[in-house]
Amino acid sequence: MSATRRQVFSRGLALGTAAATLPAAAASARRLHWVLVHGAWHGGWCWRKLVPLLEAQGHRVWTPTLTGLGERAHLLSADVDLQTHVLDVSALLEMEDLNNVVLVGHSYAGMVITGVADRLPERLMGLIYLDAFLPDAGKALRDYTPARAPAAPAASDVPPPVRDWRVPPRQTAKEFGIQDEAEAAWVQARLRPQSAKTFVQPLPLRDGFPHGIRRAYIRCTDDAWFIEAAQRAGRQGATVRELLGHGHDAMWTAPAALARLLSELSAA
User: Fold this and answer.
1) Which residues of the chain have pLDDT under 50?
2) Which of 20, 40, 155, 211 could potentially form a cystine with 108 if both were Cys, beta carbons 3.0 to 4.6 Å apart?
3) What are the domain boundaries of the chain?
4) What pLDDT digit, counting tens, does each position of 151-192 carry?
5) pLDDT in tens, 68-95
6) Is 10 a catalytic residue?
7) Over the chain, what is the mean pLDDT?
8) Residue among 2, 90, 107, 266 flagged as catalytic
9) What CATH number matches the domain at 30-267, 2.30.130.60, 3.40.630.30, 3.90.700.10, 3.40.50.1820?
10) Which residues have a Cβ under 8 Å from the Cβ of 127 and sit 6 or more positions away?
């Protein structure tokens, strides 16, 4: 092949390669990073049905497990608190250099994602509370469920007895809405105790939270604290939707419906 023909061939190959990558680049520009944060006693495993549905839309999905739970249960101690879990998720965003993040918090994790948003607002595209607690500044989870939240470890107990700081699951898998016997057994085997400090530590927030971040709330149950949280979210300007009839763990019992709703909310 002559030098001229080689130049023409090389130029054509380069142009063809560039043209072929343009659609992928455009798709990448629209790609979101979904960070799904599980609720109390669960682990990153609880999103396994939802993840492929979001990935099929071209997004990246991350499902961190909070310290002391799931495959990190061996790290459970009385010192694990709400700020530990906020730092778990914040570190993921920083170490993976994630931006354009849609942060989803289920149940207890409404506390966690609120703390993350206060620390790293510049990395977030939106917050979605999934049947979750919606904390105000200086509030702890127990402030929203005074009749059911675990008591703080007694100051006179040094160290506190295991029964005081290690909080077992307050519901079974079936009570979370998983009615299939085999699936309920699978989930039940993976629920783990959680440190009491995660429920009683107040969440400090800077002035001006949520720093212009778009927020949405999805209510899945008729629990009084989630009805109240959804109503308060609406008063604060968040988009509020419902996904009723599937129980509290809708990511497990209604993954397709939840995926559609999450996509709709992220595109709004």
Assistant:
1) 1-29, 149-162
2) 40
3) 30-267
4) 444 333 334 444 579 999 999 999 999 999 999 999 999 999
5) 999 999 999 999 999 999 999 999 999 9
6) no
7) 86
8) 107
9) 3.40.50.1820
10) 102, 103, 104, 105, 113, 114, 117, 210, 213, 214, 215, 216
